[in-house]
Amino acid sequence: MTHNVLFAEPKDETLLIGSWLAEAREEGCEDVYAGKRRHARVQWNAPVIVQPEDGSARTYYVTALNISAGGMGLRCGEAISPRTRLRLFVNDGVDSVIGVVRHCSSTVGGYIVGVEFVLEQKQVARLAKTA
Questions:
Q1: CA–CA gap between residue 24 and residue 48 (Å, rounded)
Q2: Cα(27)–Cα(23) distance, rounded to whole angstroms?
Q3: Based on the structure, what is the number of domains in the chain?
Q4: CB-hemisphere CA count at 13 Å for 1?
Q5: Does 1 fall in a domain?
Q6: How far is it, in rounded angstroms, from Cα 100 to Cα 83?
Q7: Residue 110 lies inside a defined structural domain of this protein
Q8: What is the CATH number of the domain that holds 37?
Q9: What are 45-65's pLDDT values in tens digits?
Q10: 25 belongs to a structural domain
Q11: Is 102 in contact with 114 (CB distance < 8 Å)?
């Protein structure tokens, strides 16, 4: 079963991602490997709707595992190929952010998909300051 989600471009993706980070901080804890990463990750268990930007009607209903200023980790029932551009909606939201799959690894019960947000460097730097 596939669903088409109406797209609404957020005025500023950093505000949307910042709100997701704030929600994650309230619910989860920071990653113990923060010193080894570009951006500190926060554990997060949130429903995410993912739609590839390839023109297909495909929709994935996945769960966020973590989020950072630079991207999001997802648990998915199916593999999503690296370099796939995705539109990400959190908590059945209307606003979305674009991301690119950087890795997809098989795990028990599905796949772990690492998605990097498509942002300008100054937007990432602004988010990292608030993280």
A1: 13
A2: 7
A3: 1
A4: 1
A5: no
A6: 6
A7: yes
A8: 2.40.10.220
A9: 999 999 999 888 899 999 999
A10: yes
A11: yes
